[in-house]
Amino acid sequence: MFFIKLRDLFKSYGPVMALNGLNLEVPKGSLYGLLGPNGAGKSTALRIICTLLSPDSGHVEVGGHNVLFEEKETRRRLGYVAQDVAIDKILTGRELLELQGDLYHLDKKYKRRRIEELIERLDMHEWIDRRCGSFSGGMKRRLDLSSGLLHEPELLILDEPTVGLDIESRSVIWGLLKELRNKETTILLSSHYLEEVDELADEMAIIDKGKVIASGKPDDLKKELGGDRVTLRVREFSDEVEAESVKKLIKNINGVSNVVVNQTQGYSLNFLVQSNDVISNLSGHLSKENFEVFALSHSRPSLDDVYLQATGKTLMDAELELAGKRDFKLENKKSMR
Ligand SMILES: Nc1ncnc2c1ncn2[C@@H]1O[C@H](COP(=O)(O)OP(=O)(O)OP(=O)(O)O)[C@@H](O)[C@H]1O
C-alpha cells in the first residue's frame, strides 16, 4: 500500500522547470530516500507534498487524501523538517517546542510529556534551556526534528536532514529515524549524500532534472548493474583527450560496460566488468595502444555507480555542473516572498 503518490507533477519557477513530470510512490511505513544533486527538484517536490507550494499540474496524494484539495487534513498528518529554518534567537529551545506544541493545539499534559521524551531521545537536556541564538547547526537540526515530531505524525518529511552536520548529531538523527521507521512512521527524506540513502532507505528514487530516473531498493539497484566496478588511471593526472582515447579502447573489450570518464577524479575511468578475467587482461589491451595501468581499484558497485549508470555522470560532477547554473541570491529572494 502506498502512503504517498505523486503523478505527473510539473512545477516551474519562471523559465526554470524544477519538476518535469515527476512520478513517485512511497510505501506506507517505509523510509524512502530521494537522491539527487542540488537543484534536481527534491525540495520542490517535498514542499508540494507538505502543502507549502502548489504544482503547476499533477496529482498529489497522502494517505488516500488529495493534498491539493485537503490541505488541512494533510498538514495534521505530517511533520516537516525543512532544509533551512530561521529559528527564533531569543527563545530557549524548550520555549520554542512549547510554542510549537501550542500551534498544533496539543493538550498541555501530552505536550509536556512529548517535549520531555524528545529532549531525552535526541540528547538535548544539556542545552535545551539555552537561547536558540547560541545553538550550533547540529543543535538546531535536532530542535527542528523535535518540532516536526511533537504531534507524532504518521508521515515525516525531511529535506537534507544532516547536511553539514557534525558526526554526533548525524548519528543521533539517523538513530531516531531508524527507530521511527521501525514504529511504522512513513519517512520521506531528500539527500545528496549517497551513504545516507544507502544506510537508511528501504527504497529510493534518483531524481535528475525534475524526474525520477531510477527507483527501487538500494541493494536491488546495485545488483541490477550486474558487475563489479573498476576505477582506472593510465597516469597520475590524465587529460580529457587521453581519457577519451582510453575510453574508446576499453569500451570495445568484451565484458566491459558503462565506461565513463570521471572528470572530478583526474580524468580517471569508471566502468563495470562482468568477471575478474577482464581485469587480468586489461593491461594487455592497454599496452597495444601504448597505455599502461598507473592505478586500478576494484569494488562491488555502490549507489554512486547506480547514479552513474542512470545519469551518465557521478553525483559530484552533476552537483558541480548544476551549481554553475544557479542563482542562489535570486532564489533566496523569491522563496522569502
Ligand atoms: N524560489 C525559487 N525561485 C527560482 N528558482 C528556484 C526556486 N526554488 C528552486 N528553484 C530552482 O528549481 C530547481 C529545483 O530546485 P530545488 O530546490 O527543488 O532542488 P533540490 O534538488 O532540492 O536542490 P537543493 O538541495 O539545493 O534545494 C533548481 O534549478 C533551482 O534553481
Automatic annotation (TrEMBL):
Gene3D superfamilies hit by this protein: P-loop containing nucleotide triphosphate hydrolases
Domain ABC transporter stretches: 4-234
One MF annotation (Gene Ontology) recorded for this entry: ATP binding
Source superkingdom: Bacteria
Keyword presence, Transport: yes
Record carries keyword ATP-binding: yes
This protein's UniProt keywords: ATP-binding, Nucleotide-binding, Transport
UniProt cross-references to InterPro entries, sorted A to Z: AAA+_ATPase, ABC_transporter-like_ATP-bd, ABC_transporter-like_CS, ABC_transporter_ATP-binding, DrrA1/2-like_C, P-loop_NTPase
Family membership: Belongs to the ABC transporter superfamily.
Protein name: ATPase
Organism: Prochlorococcus marinus (strain NATL2A)
High-level lineage: Bacteria, Bacillati, Cyanobacteriota, Cyanophyceae, Synechococcales
